[in-house]
Write a structure and sequence with these properties.
The structure is a single chain. By secondary structure, this protein is α+β, with helices and mostly antiparallel strands. It has 3 domains: 166 residues, Dna Ligase, domain 1, CATH 3.30.1490.20; 73 residues, Acyl-CoA Binding Protein; 37 residues, 2-Layer Sandwich (D-amino Acid Aminotransferase, Chain A, domain 1), CATH 3.30.470.20. The protein has 11 helices and 9 strands.
Length: 297
């Protein structure tokens, strides 16, 4: 018996369409984000290598609280394909691949479900990335972000567990914004965040990148039935049985200095509908900073 296909690389959109029967079916299978990324790859737009775990896998997970048969092996196989495309290896201390793990349902549910960035960082890969990039500040900014997001999204710790430590630490250092913290500061903050996890959970932050990825994927699946998501679906008449896809994408960094950044762009003004380019951005930041509103764009 052949195992069901639970995972599609971004360049396998034709297979998804053949299975789903229509573009609406593809959106239902890969979610809005996954189907749009796949379509961008198809028309030749440069997209970081990645893959989508289907909404069907999410629905199967909801029934048993376990990944459906064959899904995790397909995920590992897809990860190997991404490594080849990116020229990096997940968990390799010398040339590490980092990925994001993002939700993406058929209909947009902004901020309702979970995301984890910088997956694949641990003590070893962080040291390797410092040697590769010669940018210690960027690496430990990314590492402390991973621990903070993983702690709140995957391990269920309250945001305040990290925010209070960060606020106190910035006050000690006389830093107004996160960007005022030095490489040494961020290295120290990373250790403080690891202590928060150990204290709160009784076990350390996971150093195995594959464990980080597995737990983050489970967390995204579970967030489909989180209170926020359910309330949002009630308010917007989105059916409960659609499920969310999970998009695993090679990380692209906006926090490498003031010559990099992150932002949101629209082809129309979202307030007036006027047909002209509109957007906002932050320098030296990662995507979640725009969404969270912790700095003015």
């Amino acid at each position: 018996m052949t195992t069901k296909k639970w995972v599609y690389l971004f360049d396998e959109v034709e297979q998804a369409e053949a299975y789903a029967g229509s573009w609406d079916g593809v959106r239902g299978l890969l979610g809005g984000k996954g189907s749009n990324l796949a379509e961008m790859v198809r028309i030749g737009v440069p997209v970081p290598p990645g893959f989508t775990i289907t909404t069907e896998a999410c629905n199967a997970y909801q029934e048993t609280n376990e990944f459906p048969e064959g899904m995790w092996q397909q995920t590992l196989d897809a990860l190997k394909a991404v490594e080849k495309k990116a020229g990096k290896v997940f968990g390799d201390p010398k040339n590490p691949l980092l990925v994001s793990c993002r939700s993406g349902a058929k209909f947009s549910m902004p901020g309702m479900m979970d995301t984890v960035l910088n997956i694949g960082l641990n003590d070893e890969t962080a040291r390797g990335m410092v040697l590769l990039t010669n940018n210690e500040r960027f690496v430990y900014d990314s590492y402390r972000r991973l621990i903070q997001m993983f702690g709140s999204v995957v391990l269920g710790l309250p945001d305040e567990a990290f925010e209070d430590v960060l606020t106190e630490f910035k006050a000690e250092r006389g830093a107004k914004a996160d960007t005022d913290l030095t490489a040494e500061d961020l290295k120290e903050l990373t250790e403080k965040f690891k202590s928060v996890v150990l204290r709160s959970r009784g076990q350390p932050f996971p150093q195995d990148p594959l464990e980080q990825l597995r737990l983050a994927t489970e967390a995204v699946f579970s967030s489909w039935n989180g209170k926020r998501a359910i309330d949002y679906r009630r308010a917007t008449n989105i059916p409960d049985d659609l499920g969310t896809a999970v998009n695993i994408v090679t990380m692209v960094f906006g926090n490498m200095g003031n010559d990099s950044g992150t932002g949101v762009a629209f082809t129309r003004n979202p307030a007036t509908g006027e047909r002209k380019m509109y957007g906002d951005y932050l320098l030296n930041a990662q995507g979640e900073d725009v969404v969270a509103g912790i700095r003015n764009t």
